[in-house]
Every structure is written in C-alpha cells, then in structure tokens.
C-alpha cells in the first residue's frame, strides 16, 4: 500500500469527516480560524485516488526561524486499527517539506473505560489514588498495542502535565447516549443530580439558546467564574471568533445556552457537535443564586438537545487521573460521576522529532514558559 499526503480543500475535509460519522471539533477546518495565531492546513491521506484519512495541522513557529512544530490536536482522522506506518511516514514526509522540525498528534483512540459504579467505588477506596491503577471495565488491547507500534516508529508519548499549552487531556468524561432515551439518561444519574434538575425546574429556571450578541452576557458570567475558580479567562474576542468560524462551517456546530432565574442570568454554557459526538465546551455560573441550580438545568437541556440531534456521546471533556480525596482536582470527577457517565482514557499525545536539536530546544523553551 502506497499512501500519499497532500493538502485538501475545507470542503473535501468536511466531506470526509461526514463519511466517518464524527471527528473531534479540533480536527475541523474551522478550528484553524479559531487558532488564528497558528498556520492551519487541511490534509488528505490518499491510497491511489481514494481518500482514506484527513486531518487539520496547526503550525507553530519557532521564534525568529521559519521552522514549525506541526500539531494535530485529537487527530488525524485515520483507520488506527490497521498498519499505520505508511500513513504516518507519508505525513512526516509532507510536514518536513513544510518546515516542520517535529510533529505532535493525539490519536483519537480509546484504550480504557471505567463505568460510573466502578468510579464511585474507587473514589471511596482510601488506598487508590490514581485512576490508572483502577481495573478498567473495558480495555482495548489493539489500542494499547498501538502505543508500542508508535514507539517502534520513533514517536514519544508526552506527559499529560507537559509544558505544551495547547495539549489535550488524556482522560475525559463522557455520557453514552446511543440507544438511550431521556428517561434512561436521567435514571442513570445519581440522586443528587436528579434532585438538582428537579429543583431548578421547580424554582423556575428557564434555559434558552442565545446568539452571537449574547456572548457578551456569557462572557460577563464567565469572567466572574474565572475570578472565583482562579483561572485566567479568555477574552470576549476569542469566543466571538469561535462563533463566527464554527457557525459559518455549520450553523449547528456551536450553540450557546443561557439559564435565567427571574430574568437574572445564573448560568451559561457552550455546546459543540460534530456528527454523533457532542461536547460541553465552556461553562460559567454566578455566585449569586447558586441554590436555584442553573448549571444543572443548562447541562440537562444540552444533553436532551444532543440526544434529539442524534448524538451518541455527550462529552464533558477533561478530568485529571486523580482519585485521591485530598487532591482538590478530585471534585471535578466527583461532579461528573453524578451524571452516570464513564471515564475514558485516550492514547494521549505523541511527538515525532524530525530535527532533533530544534525539537529539543523548542521543548525546553516551552517548559520555561510553563
């Protein structure tokens, strides 16, 4: 099999994603417009005239040099179950011609899954401290073997805590939706989640969809959330760029949800959907009126709408692998476990140095930046 890689149009890129049913929203052409500080390129993998893969590459330039780290977040979209060597070698050869000194990718391959009951028991276990040490309910041996294949091809697995600020989480939390009804999903939640959803309804919380102009209100609450939870917020312009790029690609790609109580905005979130996969993207809530459970109401509406739109997965995105009760990060997992979903481990992010001295220097530079 001879695989060749070449640039493709955004239209061909989207057509291929549609043929696969879904792909990460980070692998859509629109994401290049969101990450405008990078140079984006849509690539196609071809076996003869047949396109067998697609990916979005983001090129990050080395300071003062026209050399780049080529990054494929949560991609590329390939058949990872077969012999991947020809596809990866063809990608390397193309990216080298574009000035890449190294490649970073995140194969969208699941290695292990832990169901809610398993997670609940693990969280109550005083001995266990890491999710990776908990026996999984599902383990894909072929996916785990892929890690060995990548190492044999010269790829290096990156630390989940590494210094690359665009890195994607290895562990995520997802609610399976395929073949389920709203009643099934609600029944799978714990008592606290169901109680909060009912309380929000009883208190009169109203959830509506907003438009681009409502991003201003969303951002106000988001900044408040950032101050309360001690993280650096993105500027309003980032969300406006995201809205423009993603809705231009598909009017339903990005949606804004607003939860109000007696006219006051108490919670706001964004939802992204590509084919059969939906993601909870950004969330915000006010300190005032937290007792009306606006965040639960908004989450439940997004889950219901995702089901209605044909999603098979509702993705609550990243978690850390801690299950240590003394670790402040464990609260995020405890919150998400209440939805009745499952923790998912991906293969992680992998690097291939092409020019080793430049790759080593750039890696050191990024670690210094933190």
The average pLDDT score comes to 94
- The class by helix and strand makeup works out as alpha+beta
Strand tally is 16
Determine the fraction of residues in helical runs and give it as a percent range.
25-40%
Q: How do the strands of the widest beta sheet line up side by side?
A: 7-6-15-9-14-13-12-11-10
Instruction: Categorize the overall geometry.
Output: globular
Query: What is the CATH architecture descriptor of the largest domain?
Result: 3-Layer(aba) Sandwich
Name of the CATH homologous superfamily of the largest domain: Gcn5-related N-acetyltransferase (GNAT)
Protein name: Aminoacyltransferase
Keywords: Acyltransferase, Cell shape, Cell wall biogenesis/degradation, Peptidoglycan synthesis, Transferase
Family: Belongs to the FemABX family.
Organism: Aeromicrobium duanguangcaii
In short:
The protein is an alpha+beta fold and 370 residues long. The protein contains twelve helices and 16 strands.
Structure report:
Pfam families: FemAB. InterPro entries: Acyl_CoA_acyltransferase (IPR016181), FEMABX (IPR003447), PG_Glycine_Bridge_Synth (IPR050644). Belongs to the FemABX family. This protein has 370 residues and is of the alpha+beta class. The chain has 2 domains: 125 residues, Aminopeptidase; 134 residues, Aminopeptidase (3-Layer(aba) Sandwich), CATH 3.40.630. Helices cover 37% and strands 27% of the residues. Helix 3 links the parallel strand 4 and strand 5. The longest helix has 15 residues.
């Amino acid at each position: 099999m001879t695989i060749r890689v070449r640039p493709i149009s955004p239209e061909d890129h989207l057509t291929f994603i549609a043929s696969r049913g879904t792909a990460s929203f980070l692998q859509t052409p629109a994401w290049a417009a969101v990450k405008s500080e990078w140079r984006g390129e849509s690539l196609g993998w071809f076996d003869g005239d047949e396109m067998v893969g697609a990916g979005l590459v983001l090129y990050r330039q080395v300071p003062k040099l026209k050399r780049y780290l080529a990054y494929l977040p949560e991609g590329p979209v390939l058949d990872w179950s077969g012999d991947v060597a020809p596809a990866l070698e063809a990608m390397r050869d193309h990216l080298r011609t574009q000035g890449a000194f190294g490649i970073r990718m995140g194969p969208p391959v699941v290695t292990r899954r832990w169901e809610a009951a398993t997670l609940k028991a693990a969280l109550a276990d005083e001995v266990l401290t890491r999710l990776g040490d908990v026996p999984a309910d599902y383990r894909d041996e072929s996916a785990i073997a892929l890690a060995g294949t990548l190492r044999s091809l010269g790829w290096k697995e990156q630390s989940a805590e590494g210094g690359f600020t665009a890195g994607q989480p290895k562990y995520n939390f997802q609610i399976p939706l395929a073949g389920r009804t709203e009643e099934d999903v609600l029944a799978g939640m714990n008592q606290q989640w169901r109680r909060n959803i009912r309380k929000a309804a009883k208190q009169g919380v109203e959830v509506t969809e907003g438009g681009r102009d409502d991003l201003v209100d969303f951002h106000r609450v988001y900044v408040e959330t950032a101050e309360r939870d001690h993280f650096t917020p993105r500027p309003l312009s980032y969300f406006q760029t995201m809205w423009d790029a993603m809705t231009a690609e598909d009017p339903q790609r990005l949606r804004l949800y607003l939860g109000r109580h007696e006219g006051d905005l108490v919670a706001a979130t964004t939802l992204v959907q590509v084919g059969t996969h939906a993601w909870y993207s950004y969330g915000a809530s006010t300190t005032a009126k937290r007792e009306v459970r606006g965040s639960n109401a908004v989450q439940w509406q997004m889950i219901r709408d995702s089901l209605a739109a044909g999603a098979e997965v509702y993705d609550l995105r990243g978690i850390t692998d801690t299950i240590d009760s003394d670790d402040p990060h464990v609260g995020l997992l405890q919150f998400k476990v209440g939805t009745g979903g499952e923790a998912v481990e991906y293969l992680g992010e992998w690097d291939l140095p092409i020019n080793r001295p430049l790759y080593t220097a750039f890696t050191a530079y990024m670690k210094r930046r933190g």
